[in-house]
Inverse folding.
């Protein structure tokens, strides 16, 4: 039976990263066991794996001088893999990956925070060129596990603040919220309802802040009763819109924080016999392909998802080649696309 012992205390921490043999000696396991952990192999007991990973985080790991061979893969990780949003991202990643002779592996975290057991070992075992994480994040320990294996990570539309050390690509969410509010204000609307995204989503908070900035600048207060926190789903947009439109003084316009929620607003309006845009103006966010096929076509803020994904993939490829990105945070512009779902308020 393999015995293990606790990591060395801080005063014995070496000044240089440790080799596999040195980590094995500290852990009281064989070098082969450490090698399996380093390479993401599954046949290691969880407590032994945790001990070895802890030693790597504590002391550092001295890799071979020759960079390990990576598979011609890009690992694309979604928090939730469904809908047109994911397809737009996949298109952007696949386009750049194909130019570099790389395949794309797609996986889903399914709201596992942290990700399900074995996910990170699977990534390490596949040794991809890099990992792109969409609308989610990894724990510090998971980032460290990938970093010690020279597997670069880039975040797309991260839910939280990624910090300066993690490369990320996002969009101008604040300016998008601002442009949506200004458009509705210019049309004469004052009772404007909001169906936001989750509270933990950085993009949702930025859209809300931008919207409020435009309202404040116009001297129009944002009614707290008209602000509903959603989860970016059509079902959620439908439920909140039903409640909003049933108010004694319903809103004359709704700004949904993504196009899926806007679809739910359309359904609620239809159920209540309200005509869009004559009796209710609706603005979405994303400009997914479906937006132009709704009846009437949806006014929305375009978020360049395909371009964001392509930029993230180019960044991952460059880092995998040993190049340092010119900047760790790329933010692409958003823009209002006016279609048929908004109209001047009729007194």
């Amino acid at each position: 039976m393999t015995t293990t012992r606790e990591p060395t205390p801080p005063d014995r921490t070496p000044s240089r990263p440790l080799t596999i043999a040195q980590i094995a000696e500290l852990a009281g396991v064989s070098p082969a066991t450490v090698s399996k952990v380093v390479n993401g192999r599954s046949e290691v007991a969880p407590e032994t794996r945790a001990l070895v990973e802890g030693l790597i985080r504590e002391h550092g790991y001295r890799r071979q001088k020759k960079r390990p061979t990576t598979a011609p893969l890009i690992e694309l990780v979604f928090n939730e893999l469904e809908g047109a949003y994911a397809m737009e991202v996949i298109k952007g990643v696949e386009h750049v990956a194909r130019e570099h002779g790389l395949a794309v592996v797609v996986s889903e975290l399914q709201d596992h925070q942290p990700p399900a057991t074995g996910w990170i070992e699977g990534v390490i075992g596949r040794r991809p060129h890099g990992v792109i994480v969409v609308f989610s994040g990894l724990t510090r320990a998971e980032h460290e596990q990938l970093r010690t294996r020279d597997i670069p990570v880039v975040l797309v539309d991260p839910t939280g603040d990624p910090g300066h050390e993690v490369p990320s690509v996002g969009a101008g969410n604040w300016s998008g919220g601002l442009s949506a509010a200004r458009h509705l204000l210019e049309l004469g609307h004052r009772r404007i309802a909001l169906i936001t995204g989750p509270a933990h989503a950085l993009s949702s908070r930025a859209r809300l802040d931008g919207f409020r900035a435009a309202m404040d600048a116009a001297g129009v207060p944002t009614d707290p009763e008209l602000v509903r926190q959603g989860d970016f789903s059509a079902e959620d947009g439908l439920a909140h819109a039903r409640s909003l439109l049933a108010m004694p003084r319903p809103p004359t316009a709704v700004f949904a924080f993504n196009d899926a929620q806007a679809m739910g607003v359309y359904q609620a309006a239809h159920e209540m016999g309200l005509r869009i845009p004559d009796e209710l103006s609706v603005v979405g966010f994303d400009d997914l392909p479906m937006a132009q096929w709704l009846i009437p076509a949806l006014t929305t803020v375009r978020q360049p998802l395909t371009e964001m994904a392509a930029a993230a993939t180019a960044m991952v490829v460059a880092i995998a080649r040993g190049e340092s990105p010119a900047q760790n945070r790329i933010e692409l512009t958003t823009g209002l696309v006016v279609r048929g779902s908004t109209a001047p308020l009729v007194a």
